[in-house]
Amino acid sequence: MQLPKAELHLHIEGTLEPELAFELAARNAVVLPHSTTEELRRAYLFEDLQSFLDLYYALMAVLCTEDDFDRLADAYLARAAAQGVRHAEIFFDPQAHTARGVGIGTVIEGLARALDRSEERHGISTQLIMCFLRDQSAESALETLEAAKPYLHRIAAVGLDSAEVGHPPSKFREVYEAAAALGLRRVAHAGEEGPPAYIWEALDILGVERVDHGLRSMEDPELVKRLVRDRVPLTLCPLSNVRLRAIDVLEEHPLRDMMDAGLLVTVNSDDPAYFGGYVGDTFHAVHEALGLGQEQLRELARNSFLAAFLDHDEKRRQA
Ligand code: HPA
Ligand code: ZN
């Protein structure tokens, strides 16, 4: 039996499995840089975040129509359900699609089709988090927020992702202020490869409620105090950290130390098609590598509902 859990750090484009990528490539007459699924899987040896992002953005070329986004999201939800996910807060990267000429409406309406069927078909409630690409300009992020205005009823929150170092959260102060004024909730990737200073900025300048990754928090004891005091959730992604070489091996992941320090951490899959597992697989891996027992795994599952953008009663029911 899989523990019921929420997934809070999941890039829908990162759930594109090679089989679906080839199917959509054939349908949309897109040429992929590899000729078989095996050959493609062999390319999943990453040096760092950027080397992953290069492939991640290249493969997205196969996502063209509403139906493609619907297929992608429905396939994720089916896999997630089989691994105990009951609630998913799903990132998407509109700029990665609009830059290729795919409209933001195509992306959102396509995803929404799958999400609208999700409770009935997969028993998973869902929300969407629209991410800005931090290696693009702040103006581009503002234009994206503007373009999303007809679809705001579909979007729960904004996030910040892509290449971190050199693109601090403060670059996006204005767009986060605008998002807050529109009633959107706020999260941001910080402290994945970037320093603890980026986590402080995400909190104090962007006003985020949750930090995505926050892996490097433990380097700054004052930051840990602040995160503990304010019960700021950190959405950790241990398999991603190993695959992108933020840490050498899973056995060295700070997850257990972070729990012991009183941080509200959750465990998530990030880009499961690329990093070797969905969220249930991730629970299993940290159990094996870090010796986390049933009580700690239950705590992680409980944290995932506490940290979710569910209303209070719903959280208590699930956790
Ligand atoms: N980090 C930053 N940006 C991303 C990631 C990630 O792991 N996955 C997809 N976009
Ligand atoms: Zn991520």
Which series of helices and strands comes N to C? Answer: EHHHHEHHEHEHEHEHEHHEHHHH
Indicate the overall shape.
globular
SS-based class? alpha/beta
Name of the top-level CATH class: Alpha Beta
Number of strands: 8
Present as ligands are:
hypoxanthine, zinc ion
CATH fold description: TIM Barrel
Strand order of the largest sheet: 1-2-3-4-5-6-7-8
Looking at the overall shape, the CATH architecture is Alpha-Beta Barrel
The residue ranges in which pLDDT falls below 50 over 5 or more consecutive positions are none
Average of the residue pLDDT scores: 97
Tally of individual domains: 1
Based on CA atoms alone, the radius of gyration comes out at: 18 Å
Q: Report the portion of residues in β strands.
A: 5-15%
Query: What share of the residues lie within helices?
Result: 40-55%
Terminal CA distance reads 16 Å
Largest sheet: 8 strands, parallel
Describe this entry's structure for a reader.
With 319 residues, the chain is of the alpha/beta class. The chain is built from 16 helices and eight strands. It has a single domain (5-307), classed as TIM Barrel. It has helices at 18-27, 37-42, 49-59, 66-82, 94-98, 104-122, 138-147, 173-181, 196-204, 221-229, 238-243, 255-260, 272-275, 279-290, 294-306, 312-318; strands at residues 5-11, 85-92, 125-133, 157-161, 185-190, 210-213, 234-236, 265-267. An eight-stranded parallel sheet has the order 1-2-3-4-5-6-7-8. α4 (66-82) packs parallel to α6 and α7 (138-147) packs parallel to α8 (173-181). The model has no long low-confidence stretch (mean pLDDT 97). Bound molecules: hypoxanthine and zinc ion. It catalyses: adenine + H2O + H(+) = hypoxanthine + NH4(+). Residues 4-317 form the Adenosine deaminase domain.
